[in-house]
Amino acid sequence: MLDQTVVAIGLDPMAQDLHLTTFLMHSVVLVYVLSLASLTPVGGVLVRRIGILRTFQIGVAVFAVGSASCALAPDIVAGPFLLTARFVQGAGAALMLPVATTMITDLYEERERGRALAIYAGLAQIFFVLGPLVGAVLAQSFGWRSVFVVNVPVSAAILWMTTRTGMRNTPMGGPLAMGHALALALALGVLVLGLYGWGAWGVLDPRSVGLLLAGGVGLVVAVRFGMRSRRPVVDLRLLGIRRYAVAVGLTFAVQAAQMIMLVHGAVFLRQAMHQSLLTSALCLLPLVVTLTVGTFASGYLLDYFRSVRVPTVGGLATAAAGAVAWSVTLASPDYLWQVPGMALTGLGLGMPIPALSAELMSSVPQDKISDASVLRQMLRQLGGAFGLAVAGAVVLGVNDDEFDRAGVVTVPAVQAGFVVADTLLGVSLLCAVFLLPPRVRTAKVTV
Questions:
Q1: pTM of the full predicted structure?
Q2: The pLDDT of residue 6 is above 90
Q3: CATH class of the 2-163+175-435 domain in this structure
Q4: CA distance 140 to 178
């Protein structure tokens, strides 16, 4: 959770030091999120083959290697090296994230489990909020490379702690069937790269068209193969359950809008408003702090009203209004005009996902909860990659070529990227109003 926000503040000094273009600067975030999203099913395969604990430990080790490699990015061929390292880092996160909740569930007895999961979710949100501030302090004091270096000792400490939990590793065995998972990941990666290529090369450029066609065909083949499999890596048949499909679709869109506002908002504060790293992080707090408030408020609203519509529709309406207000005030040189829009956006974005999580997990059969969780996690992170790709393409299309080469984003380009988020939230609000059921069954709310 820390690494999803800590890098946003370090993007500008990283781009200036390594002479990255705007295309490569955006790709540093996009590749990580895409790797995390598309390789999540691989974690499910490894859990069945080698067990939960071993999968988590391998994920931590891979994440540490990717982080160290990012910190060692050379000035020569910096772009390809850094993107490869970020892909490895995302792969490690893809092995950790889906199994973390399961590990906690296995470690604690039922009477302690709720409190343990609440502490886990609360700490995750705290680190998400602290990300920009931690990134700013590290980058300003020790340089942007320290943002990645700090992950290495933390990973070592985590590996040491996992050996002392007393948790048993009980793999189910069976073949290590990675083919479908990797084919799905490759198809998604090519498709998202093609979307992003629209801004860099043009809509009708052969590279963009070729990548989109190849990714689309590969995705269709992977989906058809998975639908025919008796034990698919990702059970897409769950999308045939209407309540589950609606909840996952809205989660996808909310995550897309959230990543757009967070990443482009951080870059805007640093570049367009010419603020220091620490000031940029502090100025981003109205967004991330209210996002956390909305996340915790969601559970209370769901319990009180017994309806997923209240936190979801209310949250999306608040986020949409805040996003429009923030977009309009970007042109103002006075930061204080942006605060109300930022705060409303964060509050609204935090409310839908916990409630939708309860909705989608209560809509599937008990024996399909594990598969539903993997698919939900994959599509949620893929939403972030999709949002960054589409908004990045729009930003590149609006930004002047001279600024693109210098790795600088102008105010009109950021506003254009925000319009993508505004549109996503507006469409999501309409879908929530007309497609969500009025009430939900009793279910635990998970963040």
A1: 0.88
A2: no
A3: mainly alpha
A4: 42
